[in-house]
Amino acid sequence: MLDLIAPFFERLYDTTGLNFSPFYNSYDWGRLVEGMWVSVKLITAIIAVSLVIGVIGAGAQTSRLRIIRWMVSAYIEIFRNTPPIVQLLFFYFGLGAITPQVDMGGWYEPAIGSFGWAVIAIGIFGGSYNVEIFRSGIEAVPASTKEAAESLGFSGFKIFVYVTFPLALRICLPALTNNIVSLAKTSSLAYVIAVPEITYSLSGIWSDSVNVPEMMLLLFGYYIVLIAIIARIMTMIERKIALPGYGQ
Amino acid sequence: MITLKTLLGTIAITALTATASFAQDVVNDRFKEVLERGVLRVGVQGAFKPWAFRAPEGTIQGIEVDLAQTVADRMGVTLETVVISSANRMEFLQQGKVDLLIGAMSDRPDRRKVVGIIEPAYWTSGPTLMAKEGVISSWDDIKGKPVCGKQGVFYNKIAEVEFGANVVAFGGNTEAKEALRSGKCLAWVYDDTSIAADIASGEWDGYEMPVDTVFSNPWGVAVPLEEKDGIWGAFMSGMAYNWHKDGTLIELEKKWGVKASPWLAALHEQLQYDNSYLDN
């Protein structure tokens, strides 16, 4: 791959001064590919964690126990009201210092590395929004529908799983798409705790090769394409699971 | 299809705006601009003891601030220090946010293409490691191990490419050294001058500088590239020459408690102009 495109980009650099070093220098190429891959893994993991938290949290909010409802709203207040970058630094440097770690002779292999902390911190941050998004969907499900399920003998848990949630998901999908897109972009903050995702790798390349405008362009292009793909997938899901005549 | 076209359009617009600022002509007005403004803005490091760091009361002080002050004094203007970071310092200069950069920047060929690095250089340093005592005995010990670094420092690439370390780079010295202290990495790869100062400060008991520098690279003051061959560049070159010649740098070394550098002593000798013919 690199052999094919390298001559073109080398000539581009010589003739125009546009230095796209990852496309002809194998070390920078490795950093770019690694960065893109870590970014995709990070975004996937963050979205998965935030969705799980969102569903569990929204379910817990409908609980009859006041203490559980109180805990969920406390969680939302804490994580929705603090900036994600502060949460990242808090988790990595604050909690990271007291989590178990293995002595490797001079340094410690932590049980949770920087990638793990980024997933936890940004996942929990995004999850707090998802709880609210799912709640809005759940509240929009007509009470008569739930009563109908209750009269058929469904338990509270079964009503949530088989009736309320499937309907709520369809209602809140547009809002959920917005939050997922925003989370995918927030993942770039992970570079402050040295997760080698795309922003981190490209900032490494531009400090070595002093080609900031070109690498900014590449970074911009990468996110535009990636977010366009995510948005497209979400639209497809929305169409696929739409109920004819419901909420349209 | 429409989305694809929009996408291409967006990318094209971004490309245009980004490349529009590339072409630059030689200009020669910074010197006058500073005099008219009455303020000289100098980019310095913010947490790099003892070159430029915050005093307890919040002001920036250190060797590089003192050097900047000599420039401001010579021009008869007020000095305004602007804290830069290693990863963005050259952009600050290119975009005109500072007039001059005295930011512990190594003089490298790729950097000379972007900013006007002034000769003679004013300091020198090279990459070395700081680690807990007894952990490291040679550069080969970092192979495959996590090593903390600072984003934007070219030593990271040397540690990765030549010695096979996994460099974990943070935004600032403080975060990177905190990561070393909490054991997130085996060593901290940085300037020998800075590490020596840290160890001498007494805050790093139990840590050492176990290996020699791979090489030593001078640090240059920088002006905007298009001003380098103009008045501003020539003036700064003269300032830098005098720092060596009249012993300013050697005095600053003593004032801030830095180990005497043989490089500075040699340049002090070398840059003396032999005007003994006046006595004939």
What keyword list fits this structure?
heterodimer, A: 248 residues, mainly alpha, MetI-like fold, two-stranded antiparallel ribbon, 75% helix, B: 280 residues, alpha/beta, D-Maltodextrin-Binding Protein, domain 2, 5-stranded mixed beta sheet, 3-stranded parallel beta sheet, 15 strands, 21% strand
- Average pLDDT, all residues of chain B: 87
**What is the makeup of the main sheet of chain B?**
5 strands, mixed
Sequence of secondary-structure elements of chain A: HHHHEEHHHHH
Please state the structural category of chain A: mainly alpha
Spatial sequence of strands, sheet with the most strands of chain A: 1-2
In the CATH hierarchy, what is the architecture of the domain at 41-100 and 107-197 in chain A at level 2? Answer: Orthogonal Bundle
Could you say what the CATH topology of the largest domain in chain B is called? Answer: D-Maltodextrin-Binding Protein, domain 2
SS element count, helices of chain A: 9
The main sheet of chain B orders its strands as 11-10-12-9-13
Low-confidence stretches of chain A: none
The proportion of strand residues of chain A reads: under 5%
Radius of gyration of chain B: 21 Å
Query: What is the CA–CA distance across the termini of chain A?
Result: 47 Å
CATH class of the domain at 41-100 and 107-197 in chain A: Mainly Alpha
**How many extended strands of chain A?**
2
* Total count of helical runs of at least 4 residues of chain B: 11
Poorly predicted runs of chain B are: 19-24
Shape of chain A: globular
CATH architecture of the largest domain in chain B: 3-Layer(aba) Sandwich
Order of helices and strands of chain B: HHEEEEHEHEHEEEEHEHEHEEEHHH
